[in-house]
Each structure stands twice: as C-alpha cells, then as structure tokens.
Design brief:
8-stranded antiparallel sheet, 9 helices, 4-stranded antiparallel sheet, 289 residues, 17 strands, alpha+beta, globular
Amino acid sequence: MTVRSNIMKIVQQDDVNFLLTNRIPRRTLTRFTGWFSRIEQPLIRDMSLRIWGLFADLDLSDAKKTSFRSMHDCFTRELRDGARPVESDPAILVSPCDAIVGASGIVEDGQVLQVKGFPYQLDDLLGDADHAAGFRNGTYVTLRLTSSMYHRFHAPYDCRVESVSHFPGDTWNVNPVALKRVERLYCKNERAVIRTRLSGSGHAVTLVPVAAILVAGIRLRFLDITFRPMPRDRQTFQCDAPFRKGEEMGWFEHGSTIVVLAPEGFRLCDGVAEGTTIRAGEPLLRLPV
C-alpha cells in the first residue's frame, strides 16, 4: 500500500475527517491558506501542489495552461477551448459546473434536503420568504465540487442576471461527513444568491454558490468583486447582465457547492442522480413542456 493510500485511509475516517476539517479555527486557517496559496515562489508552489496531490486526484490534462504561478493559479485554472461542450437543446438547462450530484428533488413545504434526514428551509438559504415562495413545488439540485475539480461556473441557459445577494458567513467544510453532522450548513456558510431570468421562457432560476473552508471566496466576473466570508452584513447588487448558455459567470477559490433552484415543472434529466458526476455544459434539468 502506498504512502498516499495510507494517508487517505486515515483521513477518510469520518471522525478524523470531521476533526481535521471542521474542529479547527476555520476562518483563521482560511485566511492564512488564501494568502499562502497565492505565493508565487517556485519551491513553495511546487511543494504545495505535491501536497495537494496527495489528498486529491488532480487531473490537469484539460487545463488551458501547462504551468501555474501558484497553487491559487491552479485552483482557479481555465480550461482548453472545447473542453466542456455545451448541450445546445433549448429544452435543456445545463449544469453550471463540474460536480458530484448531491441531494435533489422537489421543494416540499418550503424545505429541501442537505442530505437524507437533514432538511433546511429555503427562505433561510435565500434570506427572502417571497423569493423562496417562487420555488414552491419546484426542483432543486445540489452540486458539490471537490478540491481537485475545475472551479469555474457557467450560465446554465441563455439568461440575464437580475440581482446578486451576498451573505457573509462561516467556512464549514461541505463534504458528506460535515453535511451529516452540521444542521443547516449551507445556510451558515458564506454564499451568493444569483437570481436569473431565462431568455425566451421567462422562468426564474436561482443559483446559490456556497463557499467553504480553506480558500473560501466567490468571484463573479460581471460584478468584478471577490466576495469573502468577512463579518459584514448582507449586500445586494441589482444587475442586468446577459449571458449565453455555457458562458463563464465566475469561480470559487476552493471546491464547494452550487444549489440550483428551478420553478415548478422543471424535472431532472435522465442520469442525474445522487452520487453521479456531471460536467459543466451537460444536461441537468429539462424545462417544462
């Protein structure tokens, strides 16, 4: 058994994993890692990438660049042109990111699931009861990005972004171990609520990127702002930003989660189920007939 296998065997034990990634000074470590990851000294960069590789199956074969200035530069890498073909069918809303599909289904009584047995209120996540009411009997999908995945996210359909609300918050890990132990985790972490209006159909679809521990931060290209989990009040920005299906909207500065919310009538595409892997541009939801 290799050194990497031994390390992973230990770290993947639920109690050890939760202790190492949550029962620590999360915000302090996140600020430090955010600073450290941007160091462009070659020795530090190479050491950081090797250590990262011990804990993640890092595949850079589809990256636009073959070398990186820093670990952060690798985290937020762009892909080669054509690496993520976008489903062109106008009846399909595509995945905004590379991810592992988590909890999904129908919004019932204003609730969605974090994992089985752990519901949370949609108005708690969105911070707006009227906004949440628009998804009564709607469909939700949770998309979890791992640390080694491509961290940029894209428009799931031709749309216009109407507003963005940023909620500062904690930096809990968002892996399955933490999701089973920390109630309302997504509602506690830093997050951005991105309200979009689909072109043509006029449906309101909302994306909720949720940040996490270590290099927490959400960057939205159309606002030219990097949101970070600082102890400030909620901020809302009115927008009128058009996007084509598959066009880049922003990126995470570490692996995390996007919750996709669609109104009643949308349904999951074939093959989209908990535990499956999906890539940006692949079919996620089918629009109402």
